Amino acid sequence: MSQNKEYEKELKQVMFTDQQQLKTKIISKLRKPSIKYDYNKKRLSIFELDRKFKEENLRCITCSDYFQKFTLTFCGHSFCYLCIFEHLLKSHKCPSCLTTIKGLQFIYCKTIDGFIQSQVVISSQKNNEQYLSRKKDLKVWKAKKKIQTFNIGDLVDILDTEHIWCVGKILNIIQKKKENQILVHYEGWNKVYDECISIQSPRLSSKGLFTNRKDILLYQPSFNQNTMQNYIRQLEHQQTQQTSLLNYLIFQQQNQNQNYIMAIESADRSTLSNLLSLVIYIREMSNDQNS
Ligand SMILES: [Zn+2]
Ligand SMILES: [Zn+2]
């Protein structure tokens, strides 16, 4: 009997009057002053890292400003969307590692965009105003590039598989469940290159936005205006400070049952011009003989 009473007494001691009492007891045990100190130190060091990261890694190497629509290339380098887009109009090399980039296959990240915007907002009013004005510029550019209506026979700018902007003609509009497609003919090129492309594709643009520019890579029509089949193309190779140019003479030859393209590379444009006139001369001679 007396032993039972002893137990009861012990039980009462370990029982708490309510849950709150139990919680405070346990938490006070867990939060020893030393642990709290370590925790705060760790927190501070994370913020330190965060500050360094923001300054060094959130800027585009092309414009030195904060990323505007963060865009990742397949070689793993990040730029503002407009910076890499504009750069690829003039060169096909990544500005960071010189890997050849063709097409517009990029990865975007809304989380990083949101993070940058939140950091810029708190950094300074000037930074914030600049960021917002560049955001507006991107919006205006997108609106200019967007094709308002698609009609058969209309001309558009279209980026070909060589990443060169060309003039295209809409031959047909194809209704699709998800998004409509258009059948485009590359003006001046053989119909074997005709292509079906989604109307949402970034490879489409309103006519002239790119093909009217003189400062970007474009196909140069040959001086023989009757045949648009031969082109001299100039490609830019940017290496550090120097800019060297390489020219390509591109022949497109079509027979009844085959179609092929040949490209001759040379640093000397006049050699290619002479070669081109020779080829045209030979073709005209053989045409005369055949007729
Ligand atoms: Zn940039
Ligand atoms: Zn790269």
TrEMBL record:
Chloroplast keyword on record: no
Molecular functions (GO terms): ubiquitin protein ligase activity; zinc ion binding
Record-linked Pfam families: zf-C3HC4_2 (PF13923)
Domain RING-type: start-end pairs: 60-97
SMART domains: RING (SM00184)
Keywords annotated in UniProt: Metal-binding, Zinc, Zinc-finger
Keyword Transport assigned: no
Superkingdom to which the source organism belongs: Eukaryota
Protein name: RING-type domain-containing protein
Species in which this protein is naturally found: Paramecium pentaurelia
